[in-house]
Amino acid sequence: MLSLAFLLFLALLQTPVTQASSSATSTVALNMAAEAAAKLYFGTATDNPELTDTSYVTILKNTAMFGQLTPANSMKWDAIEPEQNVFSFTGGDQIVTLAEATGKIMRGHNLVWYSQLPNWVTYGSWTPETLTSVIETHVRTEVSHYAGKIYAWDVINEPFNDDGTMRADVFYSTLNTSYISIALRTARAADPKAKLYINDYNLEYTGPKIDAMVRLVEDLLAAGVPIHGIGFQGHFILGEVSPSQLQTNMERFTALGLEVAVTELDVRIELPVTDADLEQQKADYMSVVQTCRVVSGCVGVTVWDYTDKYSWISSTFPGYGAACPWDANLDRKPAYDGIAMGFTEYTT
Ligand code: G3I
């Protein structure tokens, strides 16, 4: 029979991704903290395969903790319209049903993006007219299906390169920037109450990308195109949050009458993780949430899944991980306290 000591020895052999041991102490529920700070929500991304994990779902369903959901994959083009005019809403519906049953706000993610785009769109032989029709059909059908159930749509996702030029995907190559107004106007007609967003990463810093996004929004507003919000994805590397730049950049849009949101927050750490890293991560989460708190037009913060168990980071950035506020065992990390402090304490 295996002795307890031997079993412990075997457990220790499992290579830890963390050498850290500190955990959260806050007793504040995060969506309640967000609402107390006059925000609409604190939320999380989730994905359909995870919904069979009962421990994960128990935390996810707690609306004191999460007041908003974003589907990480199941509302994207490849999931919704894998073949032309063949629509499948099963995955998206499952998450909307969960949100409705637990009283959570939904963000729709996303309608027009170069990635997770089926080959029939990416490699089609389009004229401006035929691609316009494809965009209109996709956006109208998806937004109509969910009309009345979605607080905000990421209508356009990641349109810019980091140097501020437009990403040369099939949409831009065929239609120049007009694909953006085509999608926004179509979404508006299909659900007049939904907030329409453009969502991108690396908007958190000063530089050509944020300047390009501001110019785009000014052009859209001048042309009377419906645009209501900008999503700051917020995929940070440990120690690289600049709250002053983030606040300045958010306020460039709120000054134009738009709202903003932190839509995909995580803070990735180079492995192995130390206690000092977790303290820095706590400070980073606090800075971002506090910035949203003090910008009155920032409506809420969404983490890009709440647990390291289901984070996208390790598969995309080898050697990095531990980016979420809950660890892979679903225990809260110091980052949790950082989020709670960001919503509840005013410090500058
Ligand atoms: O659906 C297939 C499945 O059939 C197959 O068996 C499996 C094998 O790997 O892959 C599955 O597709 C994966 C998909 O997630 C669904 O799980 C893709 O390989 C994988 O690349 C994809 O990753 C997603 C990523 O977007 C793609 O860019 C992540 O889960 C998702 O979290 C991530 O989310 C994006 C936001 O939409 C936009 N901003 C950046 C963010 C992080 O990349």
Automatic annotation (TrEMBL):
Domain GH10 per the UniProt entry, residue ranges: 24-342
GO molecular function: endo-1,4-beta-xylanase activity
Leader peptide range in chain numbering: 1-20
Protein localization: Secreted
Top-level taxon of origin: Eukaryota
One annotated GO biological process: xylan catabolic process
Protein name: Beta-xylanase
Catalytic reaction annotation: Endohydrolysis of (1->4)-beta-D-xylosidic linkages in xylans
EC annotation from Swiss-Prot or TrEMBL: 3.2.1.8
Family matches, as PROSITE patterns: GH10_1 (PS00591), GH10_2 (PS51760)
Active site per the UniProt annotation: 264 (nucleophile)
Family per similarity comment: Belongs to the glycosyl hydrolase 10 (cellulase F) family.
Species for this entry: Boletus edulis BED1
Pathway in which the depicted protein is active: Glycan degradation; xylan degradation
SUPFAM superfamilies xref list: (Trans)glycosidases (SSF51445)
Coiled-coil annotated residue ranges, if any: none
SMART domains registered for this protein in UniProt: Glyco_10 (SM00633)
InterPro entries: GH, GH10, GH10_AS, GH10_dom
Keyword vocabulary terms for this entry: Carbohydrate metabolism, Glycosidase, Hydrolase, Polysaccharide degradation, Secreted, Signal, Xylan degradation
This protein's GO CC annotations: extracellular region
